[in-house]
Amino acid sequence: xxxxxxxxxxxxxxxxxxxxxxxxxxxxxxxxxxxxxxxxxxxxxxxxxxxxxxxxxxxxxxxxxxxxxxxxxxxxxxxxxxxxxxxxxxxxxxxxxxxxxxxxxxxxxxxxxxxxxxxxxxxxxxxxxxxxxxxxxxxxxxxxxxxxxxxxxxxxxxxxxxxxxxxxxxxxxxxxxxxxxxxxxxxxxxxxxxxxxxxxxxxxxxxxxxxxxxxxxxxxxxxxxxxxxxxxxxxxxxxxxxxxxxxxxxxxxxxxxxxxxxxxxxxxxxxxxxxxxxxxxxxxxxxxxxxxxxxxxxxxxxxxxxxxxxxxxxxxxxxxxxxxxxxxxxxxxxxxxxxxxxxxxxxxxxxxxxxxxxxxxxxxxxxxxxxxxxxxxxxxxxxxxxxxxxxxxxxxxxxxxxxxxxxxxxxxxxxxxxxxxxxxxxxxxxxxxxxxxxxxxxxxxxxxxxxxxxxxxxxxxxxxxxxxxxxxxxxxxxxxxxxxxxxxxxxxxxxxxxxxxxxxxxxxxxxxxxxxxxxxxxxxxxxxxxxxxxxxxxxxxxxxxxxxxxxxxxxxxxxxxxxxxxxxxxxxxxxxxxxxxxxxxxxxxxxxxxxxxxxxxxxxxxxxxxxxxxxxxxxxxxxxxxxxxxxxxxxxxxxxxxxxxxxxxxxxxxxxxxxxxxxxxxxxxxxxxxx
Length: 675
Fold this sequence. Notes:
- This protein is an alpha+beta fold.
- 34% of the residues lie in helices and 20% in strands.
- The protein contains 19 helices and 26 strands.
- Strands 1, 2, 3, 4, 5, 6, 7, 10 and 11 form a nine-stranded mixed sheet that branches. It has a five-stranded mixed sheet with strand order 12-13-16-14-15, sandwiched between helices. A five-stranded mixed sheet has the order 18-17-21-22-26, with helices on both faces.
């Protein structure tokens, strides 16, 4: 039999071997072990940590329901994890639909739990909508659950997702709640080192600590005790306790602890309407960047949605009306845009919604239309009252908005001047850019290279078809500390903006005017269709100056073009640190560990060359080690926790010296001396 859709002469079979026996049925939790990425996104470090979040989410659901106020999370000495709460305890009776106990049902059946509207279940919840506990069980070599309920201790053990015995009563207790200990399956979870070798991964204290602190901020009054027992002999375990009665107001204070606030304390507002709980906390600072973070049922929504739309619309309207009513601005001056009134503003918007509707599979944008009106009404009413009761601070906020408006207009003028100058020179692209011939941005990449010497080597060593080179002279502007209009006066920053095609869409602002057209801090409306490259690769020397330049560039991308980072377009090149030569054999080493291994293998009389700068490398060497897609190693820049990144960037790159000194002293033991 032939098929006209196939090339001439190519036949297809009759399908006789495709029978009922070809259908593979994955029972129970086999599907999770077979395709873990479908359930937790990745089997790398992020997926490993996700196991903790899912078990903690179940305990937090108990807190949201009003039955739990303390959660203990412990990383044990063998890298297992224990999560214990003082909630009601998972039901131990038999579930009619499954014929199993409530505990075994929750841990062995997907989409089983108290999140689906059953009587006594959860009105609001986060997590993976009922698959969390069973997925963690499936991806663990062993899991032990203990339930403290009605004076009894119930215990059951599971191995690779399968119950190893029944749910038994093993003792009595006055406690109540649930305790879960799990051992991740490291045949599933792994990562790769710079040489491409598969390596074992473990839980990172900083990641766990930051996430659980955030969870405590988002749930006012909840106590979170976090312990790490993986200590060396003689060392005490790491242990922290988080408890914020101020909730998200405390969160705003934490984010602003290195900034100068225009008013204290933060403005806090809360309302419960139609089953929707809304919390907002906001505080203006002397910064230029806006810091706005939103959550739905404790889930971060980086693309925001209807809850944030309601907040922005109310905020812009209230500030404009207050300024006009109190004669703080002239009628002829026109309205502030939303960007004007939010400059320097730190905001947390957190809503709890019974039936959240997220746009897309990633839960990154809320779609519930009814939430917008609830948020808008709350912010309008509360902020109006606050401004009337605090006239001095209100005047400072209006003045801040006026300065922001002027800065926006100045930036627009500066951009037009730059554009005119480049047009007079006969080219809209910077002259030092060595562009590639391909015009499809999905295939193109640009190297941001430190200095003319390294730029020369990169230009000679590159593949001109898809690799562009933009040399940068000296250290670029620290955008954390300057007005937005200054970026258009800086030659190196302007060269990047033009070369990369960082263009902001013209859109209608929530205040009724137009926004966009110029690059501003935290721009959310970059025209990604105008990007000229889908790989932006930072390539600097492996020394202190190179690290500083890399940090300045990352600060620029985080503040002015965060969408590039979020889309996975920003990378850091990994040039070798050493060249080891013996006879005709040449090896390049990217770290000290690899160097020691190569020296041990080659024996005595290794000729070792330490590359201090990219300019020391010949073009062919640079291609072979750092630029050839077949052999190079690139590190993708990601933002897993934008609020924590915001805090760290401000701490390291901002004006406050004392917190930065404290941070450096605290983390000094991670540094190494390069002589």
